[in-house]
Design a protein that fits this description.
Elements lengths: L5 E4 L5 E4 L1 H9 L4 E8 L2 E8 L1 E3 L2 E5 L2 H7 L6 E8 L10 H9 L1 H9 L2 H12 L4 H16 L5 H4 L4
Antiparallel strand pairs: 1-7, 2-6, 3-4, 3-7, 5-6
Helix pairs in contact: 3-6, 4-6
């Protein structure tokens, strides 16, 4: 499933108000997470996002980092297109994270029992590291801490 291309602008510093006619088909299928293609001038950016309801409007967040990468500012109009998110976790998973998690079955089982939001927050925290070895090292720390029973994000990435 995919939407038609539609035009939007930022509402506030990092919010986009979404047209209901565009998002209703996704919501009717229970799809609150989508893959988004953002287009501005000659640049394209693809990412995962959540559709949420806020003060009667459906919105999605569009971070300052994504704004900078696409080159848009507060009063700019740009285009979006939504695609059905068929990923397991609702976010792109780094290869290193997946490989380490698959090599540690006990940690994998614990990770699978976490809420979808908690899983995504861990994946996002790993993904933000540019260096592959750092992603591997951080994933190993997370796996060990999950097995120790640590679930708090502020402690999950610490070595003990």
């Amino acid at each position: 499933m995919k939407s038609s291309v539609f035009e939007v602008s930022l509402q506030g510093s990092h919010t986009i108000v979404l047209p209901e006619n565009i998002i209703n088909p996704f919501l009717e299928k229970g799809q609150k997470r989508v893959v988004v293609k953002a287009i501005y001038e000659n640049k394209e950016l693809t990412f995962h996002a959540a559709i949420t309801k806020y003060h009667g409007n459906y919105i999605m967040m569009f971070s300052k980092a994504k704004q900078k990468e696409l080159g848009v500012f507060l009063n700019d109009y740009f285009q979006l297109q939504f695609f059905e998110d068929t990923s397991k976790y609702g976010v792109e998973v780094p290869e290193e994270f997946e490989a380490v998690l698959m090599s540690d079955y006990e940690a994998y089982q614990i990770f699978e029992e976490l809420t979808k939001g908690k899983q995504r927050s861990i994946i996002y925290a790993i993904s933000r590291h540019k260096n592959a070895q750092t992603r591997i090292d951080k994933t190993i720390i997370v796996c060990e801490n999950l097995k120790r029973g640590i679930r708090d994000n502020k402690d999950l990435f610490k070595t003990f």
